Amino acid sequence: MERLDTTFAALSDPTRRAILARLATGEATVMELARPFPMSQPAISRHLRVLQEAGLITRRIEGATRPCRLVPGGIAEIDQWLGLLRKALEANYDRLDKILAAETKARKKGKRR
Questions:
Q1: What is the pTM of this model?
Q2: Rounded to an integer, what distance in angstroms lies between the CA atom of residue 82 and that of residue 7?
Q3: Pairing mode, if any, of strands 57-59 and 68-70?
Q4: Is 109 strand, coil or helix?
Q5: Distant-in-sequence, close-in-space partners of 26: CB < 8 Å, separation ≥ 6
Q6: Per-residue pLDDT at 112
Q7: Do the beta carbons of residue 7 and residue 13 sit within 8 Å?
Q8: CB of 54 within 8 A of CB of 10?
Q9: Contacts 24+ apart (CB under 8 A), 68-72
């Protein structure tokens, strides 16, 4: 769960979510990622470090540039956790459907008498 906490903490910032959205379209350098934001390159680098520590992106050194890209499966743990929640909700809705169906059936029986 600690990794999940780190990932959610990284995703809590709108700038980091925007960076991930940009990287979803393909690899980009730090300067390319910094361009649309009204902040310094070092501030963007700090955001990138948080994303990297959360296992969401990877950076490599290519000469003077540091291209970033999404880590395949970086959000897999979140997806698994959300899947567990979806299953629990579906089970709750199924139980509710059965209760409502039973009540509807009982009401219809009561009206026929």
A1: 0.76
A2: 13
A3: antiparallel
A4: helix
A5: 69
A6: 67
A7: no
A8: yes
A9: 68/23, 68/27, 68/28, 68/29, 68/30, 68/33, 69/23, 69/26, 69/27, 69/28, 70/20, 70/23, 70/24
Please tell me the predicted confidence (pLDDT) of residue 11.
96
To the nearest 10 degrees (0 to 180), the angle between helices 14-23 and 2-11 is: 90
pLDDT, residue 44, reads 95
For residues 51 and 109, give the distance between their C-alpha atoms in angstroms, rounded to a whole number.
59
Count helices and strands in the chain by DSSP H and E runs? 5, 2
Distance CA 84, CA 90 (A): 10
Return the structure tokens found at 83.
């899947």
Report residue 96 as tokens: 């509710």
Rounded CA-CA distance 45/40 in Å is: 9
Low-confidence residues in the chain, pLDDT < 70: 1, 112-113
